[in-house]
Amino acid sequence: MNKMTENLNYFKSKLADLINYNHSESIIHWDLETTAPKESIRRASKVLGFYSEIKYNILTEDKFISTVEFLENNLKDLNEIDKKIVIETKKDIERIKKIPVNEYRDYQELIAKAQGIWGEARAENNFSKFQPYLEKIVEYSKKYAKYKGYTQHPYDALLDDYEPNMTVEKLDIFFDTLKKELVPFIEKIKTKEDKVSDELLKLKYDTQKQKKFSKFIAEYLGFDFNRGILKESLHPFSMGLNKYDVRMTTRYHEDFLQTSIFGTIHETGHSIYEQNIGDNIWETTLGGGNSMGIHESQSRLYENLVARTKEFWEPIYHKLVETFPENLKDKTLNEFYLAINKAKPSMIRVEADELTYSLHIMLRYEIEKSLIEGSIEVKDLPQVWNEMTKKYLGLTVKNDAEGVLQDVHWAAGLFGYFPSYALGSANASQIMNKMSETIDIKATLKNGELSKIKNYLNKNIHQYGCLKDPSELMIISTGEEPNSKYYTDYLIEKYTKIYGID
What we know:
Elements: H1 3-34, H2 41-60, H3 62-72, H4 80-96, H5 101-124, H6 127-148, H7 154-162, H8 168-190, H9 207-221, E1 228-232, E2 238-242, E3 245-250, H10 257-275, H11 292-306, H12 310-313, H13 317-323, H14 325-328, H15 333-340, H16 357-373, H17 381-393, H18 419-435, H19 441-446, H20 450-460, H21 470-478, H22 485-499
Helix pairs in contact: 1-2, 1-3, 2-5, 3-4, 5-6, 6-7, 8-16, 8-22, 9-10, 10-11, 11-18, 16-17, 18-22
């Protein structure tokens, strides 16, 4: 056996161990978020800490590091997949080896516990219960930024974990563009708010019937229930253990139908992506979705550019009416279309319309930047949140549950994640614009031929997993680098028609 083969075999055996540990950890997280008893976190957090330390030791072991360095110095002798795996593994090593092992383990235990405490605090409308956990998470995030290193802003180090090479400087330009284009337009919409009503969505909708319809809509979009499941959780999420085991959740509100329908569609977008990773990489460390800006482009594309069109509902609106005849038998498709596209600033991000959605992301982006740079403290978050909600959305927060406690992301330590939602929305518009050059989108939706859209996304994005960089995927799928102009143009054109803006 030559030296290259020996090193490559050792490298792949260790990565296989990491994949197995990640799988086990994911099962525990899934259980905690869905069916595990509340007190199970006491032991589960220790187990998660145990797995995290094992993974840490694998990545920082001298022999493993020397093996990666050897392979890195001989990239020319590797195929495309192995080359990319070596490059990404080297980044993982550089990222993790700067963190003391005890801090890494303790942090994994902390975020496991914090998510349960967040759920309790939200249910009790009591930020003070969650505050000490969040303070520790923010402190760790600041330390992690220092360990990882950054050039201009500490938040850059966190952003890079979700969107490679993204910086505060770039995001400031991106969000300034959105503000310039969308904020004045939203002000025009406010003068015509009464033109569109969403009251039909706020009637009483039986949750058991909602569950059946959620399963139908996920399957209709292309989710394979032989390789995935749909459950319920406090905060909807998706989890791709591998392409043959993809799990997602949604939530149900008896008095707001839109929550479950579009929550399910959003997570289905993520999950279809995970189910269609290429057969050549699904069992490797490249076998999952790409950056969060790419991943969110898939969920936002299905949620908004597909499912908020009238054409999408033409073949299936009768199914919704048959499910809820007591509420919808006298409601036309056009009334339903207008209801699901009503644009009005709202308190809850996951229930926001697509026009005002980015305002929610701007708010969180500004707060996260300030927390990480130290200009605001965790104890002041409820007040800061309420003030910024007034500033960005013009709304008065009534309690912590609908304000600072509405998202689980901070409890999970996901600082730097939120901007991906806005980046994903912009990417989705750009991808759909290019797709429309070869696919008649309206006709495809009217005919219920959702497989055409899925096949396009499979060919241009899904199959590659993490094999290509985010910018490469955007060039493959659209022919150009990410450009927010498609997003703002799409929103202004759509809502100009709906509200009759001059």
